[in-house]
Amino acid sequence: MLEWVEQEQPRSARWRSEAGSAPPRRIQPADDTMTADAAYRLASEGTGLLWRGDFQNARQLLQALARRADRKPRKGAPAGPAEPGEAFHRHRMAQGQRARILSMLLIELAGDYAIALRRAPDLRLACAEAWGPPDGMPSVASLRELLGLVGAHEWRKKGVEIAALGPAPNNRIHAHYGVFSPVRGEYIDLVAQAPLPATTLAFDIGTGTGVLAALLARRGVQRVVATDQDPRALACARDNMARLGLAQRVEVVEADLFPPGRAPLVVCNPPWVPGRASSPIERAVYDEGSRMLRGFLAGLAAHLGPGGEGWLVLSDLAEHLGLRSRGELLEWIEAAGLQVLGRSEARPHHPKASDPDDPLHAARSREVTALWRLGARG
C-alpha cells in the first residue's frame, strides 16, 4: 500500500509496479504549476509526484524529465570503460536509474481504473487487460507504466502480421501485456525455412505468444505441445491458437521448460542476453545466468525421440557484448551430450540506433541470429 497525507488528510491506495519497485517513501502532490526543473530535482531525490493537474500536461512533464535524464555528461568526464561487457552493465545501471526517476511521476486510479484528471483518456480496458478485472480498490501507478499499458493495448488490438503463417487475414499474432511481440522476423523465417523432420509431434519450449508453435502446426506438424510458466504468456498463446483455428492441434501447457515425454522435434527460442530483467517484458530478452538456455540444453537429450532434433534459435548478441563466448556455448552443448547437426543464420534488420552510446545498439550492427540443429550423441 502507498500512504501519504494530502490536504492534512491521510490517504492510501494500492501501489502498482510491474518492475516490482517499492513505493516512494515520500509523496508530494504536483500540478501544472510545478516546473520541470523542480520536478526533476524531487524525482531524483526519490520523491513521488502525485499528479493533480491536467493529464496531457503530465505527459509533457514526463517528456521534459526524460530530456533532463538523457543529458550528456559534461566535457572532461572520465571516458567510458573499454570492455564491452563492463560498458553494457554500466549502461544498464544508468538506464535503471533513468527509469527510477521517470517512474516518480504518479497517477491515481479509481477502483474501476478511471482517472479523475482533466483531459484524461479512458484507460480502463488497457488496465483490465494488464492487471485483471478491477476490484473497487483505488491504486497508484507511474504515468510511464500507464503509457506502456496503452502501447501494449494497441499492439494487442492490432496484432502483428506474420507472413510465414500464410496469407492475411488469418496470420496475425496478438501479444498480451508483458508478452514479447514477434516484431523481429528473422528468427521466425529461420524456423519456417529449416528442413522439417518427418514428425507428427513437436515441443515448443517457452512459447510466449505461441508464434513458433503456430508456425510448426501450419508447416504440417499434427500436434504441438507449447510450454511456458508465465500466466500471461499461457493466456496469450491460447488466445492466439484460438484466433488462428489451431487450438485442436496446439496444446498450451504450464511447465518450466519441458513437458513430460519425448518428441522427434523440440524447438526453443530462449532469451538471448545473460542479464537481469528489470520488468516482465524484458524477460524475453534478458536471462540472468543463461538459466533457460542452459536448462534447455541440459534437458534436451532426455526429451528427444530416437534420431530427433532440437532447434535452438539464438542471437549472438551476448558474444558481441562480451557476456558469453561461442566457445562457452559449444562447451554447454557438448556437456549436455549433444552434437551440432547443422546451422543456418540470418542477419536481422535494425533501425538506426536511437542511442549511439548504448552498447546494445553497437552490438546489433554485427548481430546474427542462428538456428542450431542439435541431436543426441550416440
TrEMBL record:
One protein family per Pfam: MTS
Methyltransferase recorded as keyword: yes
InterPro entries: DNA_methylase_N6_adenine_CS, N5-glutamine_MTase, SAM-dependent_MTases_sf, Small_mtfrase_dom
Positions of the UniProt region annotated as Disordered: 1-32, 67-92
Domain Methyltransferase small, first and last residues per copy: 172-314
Any one GO molecular-function label of the UniProt entry: methyltransferase activity
Protein name: Methyltransferase
Lineage of the organism: Bacteria, Pseudomonadati, Pseudomonadota, Betaproteobacteria, Burkholderiales
Compositionally biased region (Low complexity): 76-85
Keywords: Methyltransferase, S-adenosyl-L-methionine, Transferase
Basic and acidic residues composition-biased segments: 8-17
GO biological process terms held by the UniProt record: methylation
Signal peptide: none
